[in-house]
Amino acid sequence: MSDKIKIEIHIALIHYPVYNKVGEVITSSVTTLDIHDISRIARTYAVSSFCVVTPLKTQRQLVGRLIEHWMTGYGAEYNPTRKEALLVTRVMNSLTETVLDLTEKYGKRPTIVATCAKKFPTSVGFQDLREEIRSGGPILLVFGTGWGLEKSILKEADYVLDPVEGVGEYNHLPVRAAIAIILDRLIAR
Amino acid sequence: MSDKIKIEIHIALIHYPVYNKVGEVITSSVTTLDIHDISRIARTYAVSSFCVVTPLKTQRQLVGRLIEHWMTGYGAEYNPTRKEALLVTRVMNSLTETVLDLTEKYGKRPTIVATCAKKFPTSVGFQDLREEIRSGGPILLVFGTGWGLEKSILKEADYVLDPVEGVGEYNHLPVRAAIAIILDRLIAR
Predict the structure, then answer these.
(1) Å between B70 CA and nearest CA of chain A
(2) Which of B111, B120, B145, B152 is most buried per CB count within 10 Å?
(3) Is residue B2 predicted with pLDDT exceeding 50?
(4) Is B37 on the interface with A (CB under 8 A)?
(5) Is the pLDDT of residue B1 over 50?
(6) Which of residues 85-114 of B touch A (CB under 8 A)?
(7) Residue B177: which of A1, A37, A169 has the nearest Cβ?
(8) Three-class SS state of B21
(9) What is the rounded CA–CA span in Å between residue B3 and residue B176?
(10) What is the rounded average pLDDT of the residues B137-146?
(11) A85 with B170: Cβ contact below 8 A
(12) Range list of H helices, A7-79
């Protein structure tokens, strides 16, 4: 990892509470491909940790087994770049637990930045957040699976980040792609 | 789609000829998730077409069936945003066929831009390509699956685009993530 820029960014991928397509609050299933893709993306941008957040014990165990396979099992030999990516990947029970863990690590609460496909009057722009990141940190970027983060998370966050806008009205990016674009906008030189 | 910027960008996702992890030239398998993710990303950035390129007839049929399911089958009703994404998705036999098809459509050959995780002395930067795109087009961005595009494609392309660099030495982004970041850098305002 380069130490040219000292950035302390953490990512949380939330599986509860999120919405389903009809607006109900649900616990979404962990997608193993998300774990691999987002781990690689996080590693590319030197993210400090990628937390997979789900209250379901069996799902946390699934992620734990996946990480173990690629870290120490046959997978570590078969695909070393996947192993390296998973070095920053962790499993958490809730967003609250994630925030407490980071607060303990740094001795102060991280700045919580929720992401959303919609824009709010209070949304923060990419350039402003880029500057905030460089002025200190740590920052916890929070992403929702399913049809997005439940509104209590948006309310409790310190900021909601502007949505990724492409060209035109279509804004249904996979969360994997949104994370890649957002990290590139916030971190890449 | 917005018509604020008239951009004619096409994407080709190449399954042959690409390298495997030991450097052999192979035909990689189509990943259905690539189709969905890249279609959504392409639609977000108003890409004119996303061509899935494979010489294997059974794989082309698989992609054709997948598109049909989501365009006209039960899927179209179940998930309309997926349907909308697939509007720009097509299947092609080879890169040559893709280039000929676009040449026929526009009455001139598209500018072919290959992508690669390595930098070459002749690589073109993102800012330069952004300007080229705005000055005309059409552009065909070529992405490799597996361990990347076989060198003949890099040689024959008009340009090879600079690699996506994050922070540090790790550069093993999934092709899905690379496409998202590259389109954002080239097209987003």
Answers:
(1) 15
(2) B145
(3) no
(4) yes
(5) no
(6) 85
(7) A37
(8) coil
(9) 25
(10) 95
(11) yes
(12) 32-44, 57-72, 74-78
Q: What is the pLDDT at residue A2?
A: 41
Nearest to A172 among B40, B173, B183 (CB): B40
Q: What is the mean pLDDT of chain B?
A: 92
* Tokens describing residue A135: 């002025």
In the stretch 170-189 of chain A, residues with CB closer than 8 A to chain B read: 170-174, 176-177, 180-181, 183-185, 187-189
The pLDDT value given to residue A185: 96
How many Cβ atoms from other residues are within 10 Å of residue B84's Cβ? 18
Q: Report which residue type is found at A76.
A: A
- Tens of pLDDT along B163-181? 999 888 888 899 999 999 9
**Contact check, Cβ <8 Å, B167/A187:** yes
**Residue A178 tokens, joined:** 């949104």
Q: Where are the alpha helices (DSSP H) in chain B?
A: 32-44, 57-72, 74-78, 80-86, 95-106, 126-135, 151-156, 175-187
**Interval B24-71: pLDDT, tens:** 999 999 999 999 999 999 999 999 999 999 999 999 999 999 998 888
Mean pLDDT value across residues A90-110: 96
Q: Which residue has the tokens 């390296």?
A: A84
- Residue B22 at interface with chain A, using a CB cutoff of 8 Å: no
Nearest CA to B154 among B122, B183, B181, B130? B122
Cβ-Cβ contacts under 8 Å between A and B: the total is 130
Write out the DSSP string of B24-74: -EE-PPP-HHHHHHHHHHHHHTT-SEEEEE-S-HHHHHHHHHHHHHHHHSH
What phi and psi values does residue B57 have, to the nearest 5 degrees? -60, -40
Number of Cβ within a 10 Å radius of residue A155: 9
